[in-house]
């Protein structure tokens, strides 16, 4: 009999898992989604200008090509529309329990006891397998700046946009200057009377060569056999061949720097502003911003880039070391609690082990998917599977392939866990590969813990990850009955 599967989260990962199970004829699964709709990060991040800087035809499932993309780089509503299309086409929407927030998952020696809260009522159900697909960027990070609660105006995080608050004619403060800020600043600047951008650290920025796909191009993608596949493959290989070496400090690192500096020089004529926007760390150490509208917005006369450190929030604005900058609206584009994987879900494995305690020095997982002592629990977009150069959807599909390859053994032999020696070997390989990557050098980023351990990114090529996840999982796992730790 097919194992029963609890999928936690209905974003790109959870939907992919649900669809693959459905296509394999497995109906014994439930998707828990704490929100009222599907889409994960693409439901949450609805700020003006939200979109993806990975091309549409690559930022989609390989099994569900889509000829309807209207732009080379998709805007958030189109991505959400794509996910809804997939959920409906593969008939998984009715398997999603909306408004059900998973609080705890406890392995009882044989099955997972999953506790969720729905309409205020707590309920515990048993599943053979748990697939955690809550993403890395699902919990907003709000800074701890003194006086935040004293602010008399309206404030919100970029991922919790207040669409009822009209910005027309406002004095707006945006705190942060990462990818989210870069996308929302141009449309906000259009509406606001004045905008102050509080930049703590400048980012490397390269152009986004966006373009529309007109009706003819869309028809061609729909009708010309192999065109979409070939286009997708070309974008994938291009990113792999040019961007990956830049992050591994290879041949294209200098080119990336040159391209970013040329973009800065072309778009920001004022040398003083240019100097403040020039990073002092290598490109790629923090996620490179890919945007063509960001710098022009910063050069507007009604926009100031403020680099003086913030001291506190006052009732009427943001106080820096140089004085008060008045604001009636504050947008915190301050990122996510990205290294706290799975939090706040309490996960308890064999022998009562707490996953949070196991991960107190930084999250880890074999292939980013499995953790010893947590049998039959699989992670999608888990530790060390984020990319700075290619599509996460590709990584998610690799992970789902691996989970699908594990399920027949679970069905035949009962719970399986990854062997500690496979985990240790994985960590050693990861550390060795990490040493040549650019992420460690002289920058703070959401890729790493406060102690500096890179827990989020995959340090290899995605082609290698695909190969590793496509291997038979047999040797890396053992049944829990054979495990001394299950005693
Ligand atoms: P982020 O890259 O983590 O940026 C957070 C920003 O807030 C940084 O500029 C940071 O400054 C600043 N900040 C944080 N705490 C602060 C404080 N106490 N005082 C002042 N400034 C503070 O977050 P994000 O922009 O939301 O982007 C997160 C990731 O989401 C991106 O890197 C990307 O992977 C993904 N994303 C992707 C797209 C896309 O097009 N594919 C679009 C948006 C987001 P420091 O740099 O000094 O820490």
Automatic annotation (TrEMBL):
Family, per entry: Belongs to the FAD-binding monooxygenase family.
Organism of provenance: Nonomuraea spiralis
Molecular function in Gene Ontology: monooxygenase activity
Keyword Cell inner membrane: no
Broadest EC class assigned to this enzyme: oxidoreductase
Keyword Oxidoreductase: yes
Domain of life assignment: Bacteria
EC numbers, comma separated: 1.14.13.-
Any coiled-coil regions, as ranges: none
Stated name of the protein: Flavin-containing monooxygenase
Keywords: FAD, Flavoprotein, Monooxygenase, Oxidoreductase
Family matches, as Pfam families: FMO-like
